[in-house]
Amino acid sequence: MADDDKDAIYADFTDAVNMTPAELEKWLKTEESRESGTGVGHDMGEHIVAIRHKKKADLTDEDYAQMKKVTGYVHRHLKQGGPEEDKEHSPWRYSLMNWGHDPLK
Fold first, then answer.
1. Which one, of 37, 43, 99, lies nearest residue 72 by Cα?
2. Per UniProt, what is one Pfam family of this protein (predicted)?
3. In the chain, what are the domain boundaries?
């Protein structure tokens, strides 16, 4: 993977993931997180925390592949716009939060 590609993926990922590692770790321990959708998002949240704890120089190609997947997921779900009412407690928001993005931030 070219360094330019990695820089673009990294920038997109850091824009898409607006929760800190500590916020995401705390969220992943909640019942709402575990009950939101499938375990895929919850598992990805754990990968995101691990990626966010690494230095950029230590990221692997697999990390970049995961980062690209996260960015795509967040962008697709944000386009859905979520529910008109009670976005705060919606499955839409909870799913995004499992992927490191809180749409209410």
1. 99
2. DUF3140
3. 3-82+89-98
